[in-house]
């Protein structure tokens, strides 16, 4: 049994409440959780950005806007836990220490954001380090890491493999505001560099992509690792 930490992007799981993909992910996460120890860090998605947008319009500071976003990530996490039923630990972990304690149950552990100024990417990277995960998976809305934003630049090139140092070079100029939704934030990238845990960045619009990647080693995405050895399939 291996330890997997998944950063499950809010734009994938809950782009909006009406168009959520929670049911589609439940069977996938149960399948993975039946064979491995799974930690899931849920993002805020479109609903979090709506709250943050209103907060900014009201002149509310970025730290407080971040707090609102964190509350939304925890609501999303609560929805996922309820949908997973007995397969998940019944509480949202509110710290990395709680996540480690909850994992003693051998059930799927779900958490959201923790600290203002820190995205759920960073939360998942630190959690991977704390639990000594075998793999960190960033499940997002694009199929990997690109040289530029592929939604804005049609000439952007997707990378199959990167070292942590190369990843830092790509994202070092990103700003970290409340509601930031860059592919990977710089805090997460620095943690990945120091702990040397491999990371897979994969398109999560179809939950089946995750199963194919983990169990068959078949995917379109980017592996970030210090070595040329791919950590997949499990």
Find the structural class using helix and strand composition: alpha/beta
Overall strand count = 9
Query: Low-confidence parts lasting 5 or more residues at pLDDT below 50?
Result: 175-181
The overall pLDDT average reads 91
Annotation field: number of helices: 9
Give the termini separation. 9 Å
Shape descriptor: globular
Percent helix among the residues? Answer: 40-55%
**Pattern of helices and strands:** EHHEHHHEHEEEEHHEHE
- Beta-strand percentage range: 15-25%
Strand order in the largest sheet? 3-2-1-4-8-9-7
Rg, alpha carbons: 16 Å
Largest sheet: 7 strands, mixed
Primary descriptors:
7-stranded mixed beta sheet, two-stranded antiparallel ribbon, alpha/beta, 9 strands, globular, 234 residues
Topology:
Layout: E1 3-8, H1 10-13, H2 22-33, E2 37-42, H3 45-57, H4 62-84, H5 96-102, E3 109-111, H6 120-131, E4 135-140, E5 145-146, E6 158-159, E7 161-162, H7 164-171, H8 186-195, E8 199-203, H9 208-216, E9 221-224
Parallel strand pairs: 1-2, 1-4, 2-3, 4-8, 7-9
Antiparallel strand pairs: 5-6, 8-9
What's the short story on this structure?
This protein has 234 residues and is α/β, with parallel strands linked by helices.
């Amino acid at each position: 049994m291996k330890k997997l930490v998944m950063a499950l992007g809010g734009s994938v799981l809950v782009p909006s409440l009406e168009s959520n993909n929670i049911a589609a992910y439940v069977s996938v996460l149960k399948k993975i959780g039946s064979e491995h120890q799974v930690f899931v860090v849920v993002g805020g998605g479109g609903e979090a950005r709506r709250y943050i947008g209103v907060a900014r319009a009201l002149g509310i500071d970025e730290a407080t806007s971040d707090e609102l976003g964190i509350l939304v990530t925890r609501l999303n996490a609560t929805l996922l836990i309820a949908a997973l039923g007995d397969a998940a630990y019944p509480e949202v972990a509110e710290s990395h220490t709680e996540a480690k304690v909850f994992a003693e149950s051998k059930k799927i552990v779900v958490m959201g954001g923790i600290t203002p100024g820190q995205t759920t990417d960073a939360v998942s990277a630190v959690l991977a380090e704390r639990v000594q995960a075998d793999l960190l998976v960033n499940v997002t809305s694009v199929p990997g890491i690109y040289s530029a934003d592929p939604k804005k630049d049609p000439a952007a090139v997707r990378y199959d493999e990167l070292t942590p140092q190369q990843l830092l070079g790509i994202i070092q100029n990103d700003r970290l505001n409340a509601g930031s939704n860059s592919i990977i934030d710089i805090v997460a990238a620095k943690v990945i560099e120091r702990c040397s845990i491999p990371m897979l960045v994969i398109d999560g619009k179809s939950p089946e992509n995750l199963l194919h990647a983990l169990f068959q080693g078949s995917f379109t995405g980017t592996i970030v690792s210090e070595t040329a050895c791919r950590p997949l399939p499990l």
